[in-house]
Amino acid sequence: MKHSIAILLENAPGALSRVVGLFSARGYNIETLNVAPTEDGSLSRVTITTLGAEDIIEQITKQLNRLVDVVKVVDLNEGAHIERELLLIKVRALGKEREEIMRLSQIFRGNIVDVSRKTYTIELSGTSEKIQSFINILEPSSILETVRTGISGIGRGEQRILRI
Fold it and tell me: Which residue among 47, 94, 105, 131 is least enclosed by CB atoms within 10 Å?
């Protein structure tokens, strides 16, 4: 089962490396990794998506909590949460393709953020499933380049990872 793990981490040199090293040393695979500073400049928020049974995920979270730089670890799948991913995709857009790609982009609520004579670059955000559906619906030969951020997630309602 896929799990999204949110980690509050001290914004210090080597902290992220130790988190990733824990996964690597134990043979756990990281499906996606997303890192950014939080509203508190001394902390970063890491969202890691990994696959594993409940007992494996519990073991991962316990081991993460033992790391010195880790402030808090939450398995987002334990409660109601929202997940989003961002896609930037460059596609070939010539002749009649331009209109079709524009229409598909609108259907998926994407934005065309760059236009050239031969290409469109589209920005699309949503669930991983929505992102993958958009990619799957395009002609494989029209896809020139894709960039995906990986999942970012947050608890619904009043839930917060840390109360400061």
Answer: 94
